[in-house]
Design a protein that fits this description.
Length: 551
């Protein structure tokens, strides 16, 4: 039986709801009240308070398909995307949870039943891993899980493998709930891996870079609490937290070894082929570029739909980096004009049933992506030309001041410069880059003081960003910024022409101002055929009781 990705998602949810699990919709990619995470990166994030004992639910079993991004912080798959066929920055994680209800036996039995009984995966190609213990940490091997596999499934004991802390012990943080995990891996066959990414090491389970043995499902058994002193105590209520890679299981069930060759990505790949004249599967650099663009378009579309606009700080900068990385790979597909926004309707149609918010907000998402592309495209070709001139003469490396110029003048995120350097066999002087960045931050602090001190605008701006994403309003005041030969700013005239830098005050604004550690909004202000690109929004108080929003 050939299943669509939509059917696979639905069958997973139905399998567990039939076993008493509540279906819980995916949470936002913006973690709620969790400053430790840039993005939701696993299905358990929305249940973190339950595991910590700080919250409860009116159900003890749950299942869902959670949208996730791993592109920053501890979990970062950005650099791997494109170079293989199974890494993604945006992905879905199918999961089932038990909050003090069932434990290891049921989790193992149901995972095996779904994979082999419902979906028909061949049992002789599956392996299970379990925690092998860590003497120095006082942690015993998970012999309980190891014994359950051959006892309640048809998996023979010789295909139950022990691994250490790195692979088979899960911890939420340095303190708090933790426990051993048991992973299910599948052997995709010798043809699935050429060994190039792990030269000298034979293909096997948990070999980094091996495309033959792929992890499908991770079953985490949360049974301990780690104290401040590193001690481990048994939890009074034990929990189960599982995660099954949606794109990976879709590829396995479709009989392919490439996630991007499934119907999850087929509409995007078809649209890209139509736009570029390059079909996926030709091999080489164009396949890498197609994978990067398809993945990054999904990540940006979903993140922006959840409220993460491209900015210069925090999670907004991660999305800006991803979007600009995609634009640069678009050049390898012959796309020199903005094109990523044309993929948004394709994503909305493909994913809108499972995630209605991406379809509902598709027009706004496409506009934000288009505006960001237009801004970057004005400098991308000039930045690429500078890089090529320097790279052609470089003796092994790209100087830090050049890398900073690419960032500050042409908008190149440093990881994009590093990627281009790596493609040429060069390195980037990161110490020099950080020195230049430090100087830039010092100048920015001086600049803010000058701009704040040099305007007088007595009327208050009305903020309407909680009700509207866009608004028709009136420009109250404009100020043109001019800089001396050292880059120091001063406010001059009250009119702006093409190419000018300046500040604008509106009667009403939907732009959120920098406050409380949150970076100010970016976007565009349109007046007739003119476009003022907003790179920051700040709240100023020129007189008691008056707040202005400076764009």
């Amino acid at each position: 039986m050939t299943r669509t990705s939509g059917q696979i998602r639905q069958e997973f949810i139905e399998f567990f709801t039939e076993r008493g699990h509540a279906f819980v919709p995916s949470s936002s990619l913006l973690p709620a009240d969790d400053p430790t995470l840039l993005f939701t990166n696993a299905g358990m994030v929305q249940f973190k308070d339950v595991f910590l004992g700080a919250g409860t639910r009116d159900y003890s079993r749950a299942a869902n398909s959670q949208k996730c991004i791993r592109a920053g912080g501890k979990h970062n798959d950005l650099e791997d995307v494109g170079h293989d066929t199974y890494h993604h920055t945006f992905f879905e994680m199918l999961g089932n949870w038990s909050f003090g209800d069932y434990f290891k036996a049921e989790a193992i039995e149901w995972a095996w039943e779904l994979l082999t009984g419902v979906w028909g995966l061949p049992a002789d190609r599956l392996y299970a891993t379990v925690f092998g213990g860590e003497e120095s940490s006082g942690l015993a091997a998970d012999d309980e899980a190891a014994g359950l596999w051959p006892r309640i499934t048809s998996l023979p004991a010789e295909r139950v493998l022990y691994f250490g802390l790195k692979d088979n012990f899960w911890e939420m943080g340095q303190v708090g709930p933790c426990g051993p995990c048991s992973e299910i891996h599948i052997d995709l066959g010798e043809a699935a891996c050429d060994g190039a990414r792990h030269a000298g090491i034979r293909c096997d389970v948990n070999v980094a870079g091996c495309g033959r043995f792929i992890e499908l499902w991770n079953l985490v058994f949360i049974q301990f609490n780690r104290g401040d002193d590193g001690s481990l105590d048994a939890l009074p209520a034990k929990h189960v937290d599982t995660g099954l890679g949606f794109e990976r299981v879709c590829a396995v069930l479709a009989g392919v070894t490439d996630n991007y060759a499934t119907d999850v990505f087929a509409p995007l790949m078809g649209k890209l082929a139509e736009m570029s004249g390059i079909a996926y599967g030709d091999g080489g650099e164009t396949d890498v570029a197609l994978r990067v663009v398809a993945d990054h378009a999904r990540a940006c579309s979903f993140a922006i739909a959840d409220g993460v606009a491209p900015t210069n700080e925090g999670r907004g900068y991660v999305i800006r980096r991803i979007l600009r990385r995609a634009a640069r790979f678009g050049r390898k597909l012959g796309r020199h004009e903005p094109f990523l926004h044309e993929l948004v309707p394709v994503i909305a149609e493909q994913m809108g049933e499972a995630f209605p918010e991406v379809a509902r907000r598709a027009p706004q998402v496409a506009e934000i992506i288009r505006d960001e592309e237009e801004a970057f495209n004005r400098t991308l070709d000039r930045g690429l030309a500078l890089f090529e001139r320097v790279a052609d003469k470089a003796a092994g490396g790209i100087a830090g001041d050049v890398a900073f110029e690419l960032y500050a003048t042409y908008g190149f995120p440093i990881d994009l410069t590093q990627l281009m350097a790596e493609e040429r066999g060069l390195h980037v002087d990161m110490a020099g880059y950080e020195r230049e960045m430090g100087k830039h931050r010092d100048i920015s602090r001086v600049e803010r003081v000058l701009l704040t001190a040099n305007y007088q605008q007595p009327r208050e701006t009305e903020f309407c960003g909680y009700e509207h994403e866009r608004v028709d309003t009136r420009v109250m005041v404009t100020r043109r910024i001019e800089r001396d030969e050292t880059g120091n700013p001063r406010l001059t005239g009250q009119s702006l022409s093409e190419g000018d830098e300046g500040i604008v005050f509106l009667e009403e604004t939907p732009f959120y101002a920098e406050a409380g550690g949150q970076v100010g909004d970016t976007g565009v202000i349109r007046q007739g055929n003119s476009v003022f690109r907003v790179t920051d929004t700040r709240k100023e108080v020129p007189a008691p009781g008056i707040e202005n929003y400076c764009h």
